[in-house]
Amino acid sequence: MLRHFGSAGEALSCEPVTQGLLNRGYRVTTTRGTYFLKHHLDGDREAIVRQHRATRRLQELGVPVAPAVEGADGATVAVVGGRCYALHPWVDGRHRDGAQLTVRASRHLGGLLGLVHTCLDHVMDPGAAGAAAPRYESRDPALTLREISELLALARGQGPGDSFDELAAYRLTERRALLERHAHRRPPPGAEPAPGWVHGDFHPLNLLYRGIEPAAIVDWDRLAVQPRAEEAVRAAAIFFVGPTGELELPKVRAYATAYRRAAGADARELAAAVHRVWWERLNDFWTLRWRYVRHDRRADPQFAAVSALAVWWTKEYEAVRAAFTC
Q1: Backbone angles phi, psi at 96, to 5 degrees
Q2: Cα 122 to the chain's mean position, in Å?
Q3: pLDDT tens, position by position, 65-115
Q4: HEC per residue, 308-323
Q5: pLDDT above 70 covers what percent of the chain?
Q6: Angle 141-143-144 (CA atoms, 0-180°, nearest 5)?
Q7: Where are the beta strands (DSSP E) in 220-287?
Q8: What's the rounded Cα separation, in Å, for the pair 219 and 205?
Q9: Is the pTM of this model over 0.70?
Q10: Residue 81: left if φ>0, alpha if ψ -120 to 50, beta else—which one?
């Protein structure tokens, strides 16, 4: 594979990078430096090339990214044995979640995501956002209630079970009651904020810091057209959630104020995004599907905070909306 990237040198070592759920990554040391080798499991070469073109142009606009290395023919994707690989410069940095960010750093984070969204407007097809965006219909609570029953049966059917299974059953029962109480608040069709190109997976594991400054936004696999403000709300709900499910609202407020300013988004747009993402969280059980349906426990550590957030957010709905819009 490295022969495709002749300027990268000869391989000296290759070590798996353990973080990440959707792709495989390796730290490769060669005679000419250190690189991040990414194995794209979905294998959609055209989509990967589009991501690489976007990040190269984003770098030219001052967005901190790590564009893919080009081969001698200018291509950035090597296909070996039917599998797609890309090579990126290794970025020395660390991940920082919201607990490690000050209010000032949280403000900087919101401004950075706003910069990403405005720059994507320049580097992507300007007509694609309007043409490619489907209707983003919110989840039908009747489907969620059916899913809750299925997951409850799986959680309670684990033999003697463990503390995770007990918490899962408790949260599923709790969520069922919340959904029945709030089913009338399902966002109506057409209530979504304006669509645009977004990173698609903006969270702490996809942002590397060098000191207190962001060094690189990585993993652009989900680059797509979506309601832009919803990405801002989703990111905040990941960065600033505490272990028991509460959002750090002072940091959220600083982050959201900077995002609105940088992206040109108004309070009404953020309010619509808050409501739709709240509903999304109320109806989402992806961590439990991974455990009980896919038999993959890598997401288990996220379940406690994620499941508690939906309950806390419902209780503190007005305070959360104010943090994003005031």
Answers
A1: -135, 125
A2: 22
A3: 999 999 988 999 999 888 999 999 999 999 999 999 999 999 999 999 999
A4: HHHHHHHHCHHHHHHH
A5: 95
A6: 60
A7: 224-227
A8: 9
A9: yes
A10: left
Give the mean pLDDT of the chain.
93
Tell me the backbone φ, ψ of residue 297, rounded to 5 degrees. -100, 10
Token digits of residue 142: 């009747």
CA distance 140 to 162: 31
d(CA 259, CA 172): 34
Residue type for 97, please? D
Task: State both tokens at 274.
Answer: 């808050």
Report, as an integer, the average pLDDT of 239-255: 97
Q: List the one residue out of 172, 293, 313 whose CA is nearest residue 234.
A: 313
Name 4's Cβ contacts closer than 8 Å, sequence gap at least 6.
Answer: 71, 72, 75, 78
Distance, CA of 249 to CA of 316 (rounded, Å): 11
What's the pLDDT at 129?
55
Tokens matching residue 316: 């503190």
